[in-house]
User: Which sequence fits this backbone?
């Protein structure tokens, strides 16, 4: 994508490949109108007007009856001339239209190229481009609502505010470096200090909220753990409503982690069934399974820890309770399963648990999971939606923190250096100063036609 030029005209199918009632082929660039006039055999197309027309290929053969919309530059998604052919559905017609457009001198668009052009032509900033890319892949209505806020520019405004503050500080420190101190307003240091503290709080809060909500975009991960034979796979099957995993009364039945998606309330979650965690095993494959279980805990947003209510709490259960204590930052649900059988588990060993039976119903557990998911999605705070954005805020915050000492000791050149770095970092979210490589990586992750 680095040999990218803005002069050529690009084309791609904008709609999903498959059977649908309408397919859209989008053309962007200088030749878009000229190509559309040839295909439609019209003398002109009225901008932003849906024109019904027959479409013809380069051999003058009829290929479809379609709506054509011409967006005259600069008033289009990319800022260039755009023509949309809204043709009949199915991949064959769309491909014929694309082929014709190519024959008339356009080239195939790369992944993300429409959005990249929109960015380069100042139609959208990177936070909006990212929101567009992610909203297409969003798995839940909550995720869509969150991303729609970024389409509207919430993150952009946040970044703009911080940029403004940082620029203010830079301007005043430059002045202080150049002029004698007595010429400056006396409260300026206090003002800068106050701004630094405000930015620190704002950035930290945003990072915290974003980390909590990471699972909302990719699907929250719920890991089911416990010693062998407590009913982990039975629980997975019950949650999925079909027999996905093999269950048996032989301990060590599940040897690898199994991951499946399921909807709970309004949330799409990924459930991970793990191999039973036991203290000592000489079985190499089982040992690997156990290590994967520990990894599953690390990656999970919610850990469902199962215990067998029909057995006494033994050393292996204790080991798992200890493991949970080590992960107290996680949302943990402790569950006594097999409660349909005679209860033998010593409940004084465990606090805050629920009792269920996968042979009966697991509603209590589902409600509990749903409540945690609700709590983690109902925040109103601004949320960063990509690793890239999180990294930029982390780096910005780091430089802000580094600027505090020099500010207090009056080493203003150093202070200005860190603030400049912070400014570069935060700008990466919306419009980087110079970073072609990052742009290539980012837009390369888009789906074709975007
Ligand atoms: N048919 C169709 N539907 C679509 C898109 C599209 O490209 N085509 N979009 C593509 O992602 C999204 C809508 N986004 C768009 C964003 C800007 C403009 C546009 O024409 N902007 C002009 C005029 C603005 C105005 O009229 O207010 C501009 O910014 O100058 C069009 C679509 C979703 N739906
Ligand atoms: N009575 C009763 N039996 C259950 C319940 N849940 C599971 N079982 C039985 O317990 C045995 C083990 O179930 P699994 O789901 O395979 O257990 P697991 O934890 O996945 O076991 P491993 O994969 O070996 O770690 C099976 O015979 C199940 O039918 C329950 O709530 N009540
Ligand atoms: Mg199992």
Assistant:
């Amino acid at each position: 994508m680095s040999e990218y030029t803005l002069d050529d005209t690009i084309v791609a199918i904008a709609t999903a490949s498959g059977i649908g009632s309408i397919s859209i082929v989008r053309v962007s660039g200088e030749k878009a109108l000229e190509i559309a006039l040839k295909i439609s055999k019209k003398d002109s197309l009225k901008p932003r007007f849906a024109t019904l027309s027959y479409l013809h290929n380069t051999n003058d053969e009829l290929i479809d009856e379609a709506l054509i919309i011409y967006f005259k530059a600069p008033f289009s998604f990319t800022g260039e001339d755009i023509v949309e052919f809204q043709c009949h559905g199915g991949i064959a017609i769309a491909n014929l239209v694309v082929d014709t457009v190519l024959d008339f001198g356009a080239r195939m668009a790369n992944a993300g190229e429409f959005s990249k052009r929109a960015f380069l032509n100042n139609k959208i900033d990177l936070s909006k481009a990212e929101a567009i890319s992610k909203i297409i892949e969003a798995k839940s209505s909550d995720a869509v609502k969150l991303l729609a806020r970024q389409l509207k520019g919430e993150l952009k405004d946040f970044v703009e505010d911080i940029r403004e503050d940082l620029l203010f500080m830079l301007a005043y420190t430059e002045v202080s470096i150049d002029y004698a101190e007595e010429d400056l307003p006396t409260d300026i240091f206090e003002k800068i200090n106050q701004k630094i503290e405000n930015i620190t709080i704002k950035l930290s809060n945003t990072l915290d909220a974003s980390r909590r909500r990471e699972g909302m975009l990719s699907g929250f991960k719920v890991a089911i753990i416990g010693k062998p034979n407590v009913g982990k796979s039975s629980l997975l099957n019950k949650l999925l409503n079909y027999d996905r995993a093999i269950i048996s009364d032989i301990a060590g039945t599940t040897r690898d982690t199994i991951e499946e998606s399921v909807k709970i309330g309004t949330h799409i979650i990924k459930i991970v069934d793990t191999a039973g965690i036991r203290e000592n095993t000489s079985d190499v494959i089982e040992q690997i399974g156990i290590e994967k279980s520990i990894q599953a805990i690390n990656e999970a947003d919610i850990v469902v820890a199962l215990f067998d209510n029909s057995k006494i709490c033994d050393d292996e259960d204790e080991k798992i309770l200890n493991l949970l204590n080590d992960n107290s930052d996680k949302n943990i649900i402790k569950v006594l399963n097999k409660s349909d059988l005679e209860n033998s588990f010593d409940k004084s060993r465990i606090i805050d648990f629920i009792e269920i039976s996968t042979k009966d119903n697991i509603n209590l557990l589902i409600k509990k999971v749903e409540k945690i998911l609700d709590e983690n999605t109902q925040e109103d705070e601004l949320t960063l939606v990509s690793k890239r954005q999180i990294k930029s805020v982390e780096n910005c915050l780091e430089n802000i923190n580094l600027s505090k000492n020099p500010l207090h000791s009056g080493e203003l050149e150093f202070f200005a250096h860190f603030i400049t770095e912070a400014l570069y970092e935060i700008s990466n979210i919306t419009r980087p100063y110079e970073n072609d490589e990052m742009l290539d990586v980012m837009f390369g992750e888009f789906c074709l036609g975007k």
